């Protein structure tokens, strides 16, 4: 029973034995990349306003 629960948890997280599945890596990176891009746009906007 515990083994089945561990297998289900691994399949949900996307970890299969030795590595990560590509879908889970993309799912983890997408929010991080979105925050970085929005932060860059906001930083550029602030500097453009300061230059005026």
N- and C-termini, Cα separation:
66 Å
The oligomeric state of the chains shown is single chain
**Can you list the strand order of the major beta sheet?**
1-2
State the helicity in percent bands: over 70%
Ranges where pLDDT stays below 50 over 5 or more residues in a row are none
Structural category is mainly alpha
Largest sheet: 2 strands, antiparallel
Number of helices: 2
**Percentage of β-strand residues:** 5-15%
What pattern of helices and strands is seen along the backbone? HEEH
Shape: rod-shaped
Number of β-strand runs: 2
Rounded to an integer, what's the Rg over CA atoms?
A: 19 Å
Overall pLDDT: 79
From the structure above, extract its key features.
2 strands; 2 helices; 52 residues; mainly alpha; two-stranded antiparallel ribbon
Structural notes for this entry:
The protein is built from two helices and two strands, in the order αββα. The protein is mainly alpha-helical. The chain has a two-stranded antiparallel ribbon with strand order 1-2. β1 (15-16) and β2 form a beta hairpin. The longest helix is centred in the last third of the chain and has 30 residues, at 22-51. It is rod-shaped. The chain starts with a helix and ends with a helix. The mean pLDDT is 79.
